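Bit of a strange request maybe. I'm writing a small parser for structure token strings and I need a real example to test against, not something I typed by hand. Could someone generate the tokens for this chain?
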Amino acid sequence: MRREYRTHVDISARAERVWEVLTDLESYKNWNPFILRARGRLREGSAIKIQFRLHNGLVIPAKPRIIKVEPCSRISWEGWLVTPRLLGGEHRFLLREMPQGVTRLTQREIYGGILLPWVWWHLKRDAEKGFHAMNQALKNRVEKGIEH
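Reply from user aminoacidic:
Good idea to test on real output. This should exercise your parser:
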């Protein structure tokens, strides 16, 4: 069984500028309400360390593995609980330039594993709150021209 959650935001900036802010993991602690801390290199095959906030305020550490990086276009990572068969997910950040200098950021999480039927409602609630909060914070940071 697989499930997916997806959301997007339109940001009034070129993809290069959105990418610059999105890939500056060390600055997440200054602006990101969902991924509170992030460390590591966005290089395919490497692992990064993140801490993210659940809908109830609980902060969870994770160590996802980077599976795809396409500059100014895509970052994908995967993580799991014990084993991907138990519960896992692939997170994607997708950037697409739209007309008139707007970039659309899409966040997409594809979940799978044998525990999914029992935890889907919680995962969806966390994704919904967290993705939207991060999208808005990224939009605000990029559009206000805050340097990092």
